[in-house]
């Protein structure tokens, strides 16, 4: 409100204080406020408020063989910030997935509350399941993770290059 007034060419020393008081007293201003002070009835909180607590994970490949036998790409995308972490790996197996999650998620961002992945054997094997239970990470399965679009885009870019 003060910015609009000053753009019109007006200024006085107490304008910030007076604008704040006017806004607090105005019913129409309260109705049109961008920030709601009272929760909406029937609203359900979704996800976590803590960043880097919910990750989607996927293994891309096989890709063209790289030096050292690296043929797959482990990739994880954080739910709220869309932060991407990726690492090339030799094979699709639970040990590789566990090592990737430990190095690239847990050691960098802390222990997440949840990891979502496709329902594939290397995510369901005892090694990775025990890893998640040991760190008290909820591991959920879905046919398509929420960040599959990002992962498919990355896979296309890798195949092109």
Count of separate DSSP helical elements: 7
Beta fraction of the residues? 15-25%
> What is the spatial order of strands in the main beta sheet?
3-2-1-4-5
What shape does the CA trace take?
Answer: elongated
Rg on CA atoms, Å: 24 Å
**How many angstroms separate the termini?**
51 Å
Give the overall average pLDDT: 78
Low-confidence stretches: none
* Biggest β-sheet strands, sense, barrel: 5 strands, mixed
Number of DSSP strand runs: 5
Helix content: 25-40%
Assembly form of the protein: single chain
Quickly give the structural class: alpha/beta
* SSE pattern, N- to C-terminal: HHHEEEHEHHEH
Notable characteristics:
single chain, alpha/beta, five-stranded mixed sheet, 7 helices, 40% helix, 17% strand, elongated
Topology:
Layout: H1 2-7, H2 15-25, H3 27-31, E1 54-60, E2 72-78, E3 84-89, H4 94-109, E4 114-117, H5 121-124, H6 126-134, E5 138-141, H7 148-160
Parallel strand pairs: 1-4, 4-5
Antiparallel strand pairs: 1-2, 2-3
Task: Give an account of the 3D structure.
It is a single chain. The protein is of the alpha/beta class and 161 residues long. Helix content is 40%, strand content 17%. The chain contains seven helices and five strands. Helix 4 (94-109) packs parallel to helix 6 (126-134). The longest helix has 16 residues, at 94-109. It is elongated and about 70 Å long. Residues 47-142 form the Integrase catalytic domain.
Summarize it.
The protein is α/β, with parallel strands linked by helices and 161 residues long. It has helices spanning 2-7, 15-25, 27-31, 94-109, 121-124, 126-134, 148-160; strands spanning 54-60, 72-78, 84-89, 114-117, 138-141.
């Amino acid at each position: 409100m003060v910015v609009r007034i000053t753009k019109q060419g007006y200024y006085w020393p107490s304008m910030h204080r007076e604008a704040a008081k006017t806004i607090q007293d105005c019913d129409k201003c309260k109705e049109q406020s961008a920030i709601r002070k009272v929760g909406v009835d029937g609203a359900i909180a979704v996800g976590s408020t803590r960043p880097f607590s919910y990750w989607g994970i996927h293994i891309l490949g096989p890709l063209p063989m790289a030096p050292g036998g690296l043929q797959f790409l482990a990739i994880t995308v954080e739910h709220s910030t869309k932060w991407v972490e990726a690492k090339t790996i030799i094979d699709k197996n639970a040990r590789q997935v566990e090592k990737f999650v430990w190095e690239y998620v847990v050691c960098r961002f802390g222990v997440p509350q949840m990891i979502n992945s496709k329902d594939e054997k290397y995510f369901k094997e005892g090694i990775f399941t025990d890893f998640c239970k040991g760190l008290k990470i909820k591991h959920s399965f879905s046919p398509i993770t929420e960040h599959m679009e990002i992962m498919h885009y990355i896979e296309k870019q890798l195949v092109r290059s």
